[in-house]
Amino acid sequence: MLERSRLLALHPRRANQLIRASVRERKEAEGFESLLEPLRHYWRVSILHGEICNGGIAQYFTNSSGEEYREDLASLKAVGAWKQFDILQRWLGSLPNRIDPADRRQVGLYVFGTPEALAVEEELSQEYFRVTDAFNEALVAFALGNADAFGIG
Is residue 2 within 8 Å of 142, Cβ to Cβ? Predict the structure, then answer.
């Protein structure tokens, strides 16, 4: 069981790492669909965040995870990660109507084949990287606000 006092004493990034490890254990033991809704939201945004931090917004949308971007955006809202939600909404708004964000092939061809699109993606990815502390703070606050679901005592 995670202890509230310990999580509050840690830097939000470290606290979030501990929470994520706990959620991962439960996901592996129970399966994603069996998790309580707050844990599913948490897991979704953790995967999204990891992919973006690893390779930018384009990496997320050109990998299979991006096929579920609608659910992931809803999860960003649910956990209160508003800065990340706003950045992704602006990136989605930069795509032409003919590009389906859930189609990773279309997204990849457009972003990597259009210098202007790549420049927008790089700019917004850099903005995303600058607000990772806010992401960790939001997730820790979300977990503490759903302490029973997360097993925080």
Answer: no
Residue 106 CB burial class (10 angstroms; 0-12, 13-18, ≥19): middle
3-state secondary structure of 1: coil
Q: What is the spatial distance between Cα 153 and Cα 144, in angstroms, rounded to a whole number? A: 9
The whole-number average pLDDT for the span 62-79 is: 97
Q: 10 pLDDT band (50/70/90 cuts)?
A: very high
Tokens representing residue 61 in the block: 């949308």
User: Which residues lie closer than 8 Å to 72 by C-beta, 6 or more apart?
Assistant: 44, 45, 47, 48, 65
Mean pLDDT of 40-56: 97
Residue 109 CA to residue 85 CA, distance in Å, equals 24
SS3 151: coil
Could you please report the per-residue DSSP string of 57-119? HHHHHHSGGGGGHHHHHHHHHHHT-HHHHHHHHHHHHHS-TT--TT-HHHHHHHHHH-HHHHH
